[in-house]
Amino acid sequence: xxxxxxxxxxxxxxxxxxxxxxxxxxxxxxxxxxxxxxxxxxxxxxxxxxxxxxxxxxxxxxxxxxxxxxxxxxxxxxxxxxxxxxxxxxxxxxxxxxxxxxxxxxxxxxxxxxxxxxxxxxxxxxxxxxxxxxxxxxxxxxxxxxxxxxxxxxxxxxxxxxxxxxxxxxxxxxxxxxxxxxxxxxxxxxxxxxxxxxxxxxxxxxxxxxxxxxxxxxxxxxxxxxxxxxxxxxxxxxxxxxxxxxxxxxxxxxxxxxxxxxxxxxxxxxxxxxxxxxxxxxxxxxxxxxxxxxxxxxxxxxxxxxxxxxxxxxxxxxxxxxxxxxxxxxxxxxxxxxxxxxxxxxxxxxxxxxxxxxxxxxxxxxxxxxxxxxxxxxxxxxxxxxxxxxxxxxxxxxxxxxxxxxxxxxxxxxxxxxxxxxxxxxxxxxxxxxxxxxxxxxxxx
Length: 445
Ligand code: NDP
What we know:
Helices cover 48% and strands 16% of the residues. With 445 residues, the protein is of the alpha/beta class. It has three domains: 1-53 and 424-445, Orthogonal Bundle (Glutamate Dehydrogenase, Chain A, domain 3); 57-188, 3-Layer(aba) Sandwich (Rossmann fold); 208-370, Rossmann fold, CATH 3.40.50.720. The chain contains 17 helices and 15 strands. α6 (138-152) packs across α7 (171-185), α8 packs across α9 (240-251) and α8 crosses α16. The chain binds NADPH dihydro-nicotinamide-adenine-dinucleotide phosphate. NADPH dihydro-nicotinamide-adenine-dinucleotide phosphate binds at residues 165-168, 170, 209, 237-242, 261-263, 319-321, 324, 344-346, 371, 374.
């Protein structure tokens, strides 16, 4: 029995019209997994791919709240519980005006394979709202979070579904969400990760995605007999992932020269050092200002409306959002000598750009492998919560490093192709096989 990728994809397109991001993520995975399934009839017989792309459950709900001026406001809340074959649903919450079922299903689908790669017992999920925290007061954000959790709390739990942060959901939002859950459920549990250290959070969780990305890049470079020392690095974004990617890059001897937000990018040819990074953190996490203020303070170039990919670099780390690096950006990066691209964000590179990198053997890592450090450390937070324990920063960082090295080894095992590692193939296959084995064992559920 042979199943053609085309037939399966057509079916997924028919069942999920108007969901371009979800279909884009499924297409990439299908092109790798279906040929593998064709060699494993037991997977085909169990219709594993069709089951993998259908969420186990999707919850959509109204989120009413009142703004500071006394106006009644309504947003829409979601939780996509994609796959629980290897553990409770696990994945972040995104608060951004662009949030819709397509974006959340793509993120939840990617999360299933990513969580599997960490080798920790975590299924995949994702959720969020079209609420925009930008420009809202702390009180408005709190009222929104409390209303959001008032509905969501029925569907989650430490052994059921454990959300975390994502775009627009940082430590402030996680605190408000956790506080409301605790009040409603009358229990103090590890129901959400990314918590503050004072109330059950793990040290290094805020840093984990960016740090993990650089540990993964270090492994990629080792394969080439190279290191981060002196490498010029372009980074997009200036939020959680970008800040900590910049931090670890500096610590490892690299030279990050850009940062961006949805309004534009800054180029600092002398390199962003730890002092300038402290300014970015204060600007973004406390004052919630725009990255253009960095250019004014340090007298460097600001490019409104631009992404950083036209700046010459050795390494590019997209850390902002999906589809932020397209084929033309890839062409310019390659022309300027970029030798390695690793994703801090989820699906920031368009399929055409990925093909261009791969065709020219530019070392390229997809987010489900290279940004898995965040969810891996969330898994470590769950372990600490279950043990009522609190590990040192050194222990958590060392566990994180080992997990990123293990993910790299899995990518190599399944993606080695003569003298080139196909990280897309490696990550998708390694992630899939563990979930597939669990689904087979659990029967037709
Ligand atoms: P943050 O909200 O902390 O930061 C997001 C950054 O990206 C901001 O600088 C933001 O700019 C920018 N951005 C957001 N949307 C757009 C857009 N449409 N166009 C241009 N820039 C945009 O989010 P995170 O750093 O947590 O997340 C960044 C990426 O990393 C996402 O893809 C997320 O899914 C992924 N990720 C995050 C993990 C985590 O642990 N936080 C784990 C794994 C992946 P502005 O401030 O102007 O909106």
